[in-house]
Design brief:
The chain is mainly β. The chain is built from no helices and 28 strands.
Length: about 280
């Protein structure tokens, strides 16, 4: 299990390193920019919330040691398993950028719907899925060339995607006045097959603990394969906007209530909480 978590607070302009699983602050710095989405692994990358720019951050000192331009309004950053490629999902330009992680050189661009919300790499690092927001599609792209391999309608606002139990999964917001959450799989025929409908607007979902952890308004729900049986549900304060797997636990950012929390994946018990102002990104180091 990883033992450190990077957190960005856009309201206070802070980057922090937390120890896991106790959420103690190991380091923090005030940045000269408004920190947003993060990507961690072989290095730490942080998008600027105010300017179309990504910063390369020293994970020990949290100082910016380089920067490069990108598209505006970054909704997600993702680093490839080998640390060579950085993917930047732009809500402002409705695009996905493939960047050289070392030098920031632009290697490819793909159009990905209307205000795309999230993206995910398959375990082999060959396929990249994108939740295309208001166009109600999930796109599957070649992770090396960004060529489109598939486009799948999900009958609602596509807010999340992931690869789970050998399937491409979609997190969908449905409804006009009271938004609900639908989780389903893209079948071999390319059709979206709903697994389960949950209450409240969707937030984020991530495979962890042998199941699929879904954050929706005021609730965390753990689903089991093969068809989405509920293992447990836990009431929370707001809306999980990002989730990271820690092994026996998971960490999630609550974008509405300004919380970073750790939850036990066996029973759904929230073990620890840390109050922040505006958590925009979390990433394992």
């Amino acid at each position: 299990m990883q033992d450190k978590l990077a957190v960005s607070d856009a309201n206070l302009g802070l980057l922090a390193i937390l120890t896991l699983p106790d959420l103690m602050v190991a380091a923090k710095v005030r940045t000269p920019f408004r920190p947003g989405k993060l990507a961690g692994g072989r290095g730490l990358y942080c998008a600027d919330q105010s300017e179309p720019c990504i910063y390369f951050i020293n994970p020990e000192t949290l100082e910016a040691i380089g920067s490069f331009p990108t598209a505006p309004e970054i909704e997600g950053l993702l680093l490839s398993q080998n640390g060579v490629s950085l993917y930047a999902l732009s809500g402002g330009a409705d695009s996905l950028q493939l960047l050289d992680a070392g030098q920031g050189r632009l290697r490819g661009v793909a159009r990905v719907g209307m205000h795309p919300r999230a993206m995910a790499l398959d375990p082999q690092g060959q396929c990249l899925a994108v939740a295309c927001g208001g166009t109600c599609d999930i796109l599957a792209l070649n992770a090396h060339t960004l060529s489109v391999c598939g486009k799948y309608s999900v009958d609602g606002i596509a807010t999340g995607c992931c690869f789970f139990a050998g399937q491409l999964m979609a997190l969908v917001g449905t409804g006009d006045y009271e938004m609900g959450t639908v989780i389903g799989a893209i079948g071999p025929d390319g059709c979206f097959s709903p697994w389960i409908k949950l209450s409240g607007m969707p937030g984020a979902m991530t495979p962890c603990g042998g199941g699929l952890l879904v954050g929706h308004l005021q609730t965390l729900t753990m689903l089991d394969p093969p068809n989405g049986r509920i293992r447990w549900q836990t009431k929370i304060a707001g809306l999980p906007t990002e989730i990271v797997d820690l092994g026996r636990t998971a960490c999630f950012a609550d974008g509405l209530e300004g919380l970073i929390s750790v939850v036990d994946l066996r029973r759904g018990t929230v073990l620890r909480r840390l109050q922040v102002k505006e958590p925009m990104g979390i990433a394992l180091l």
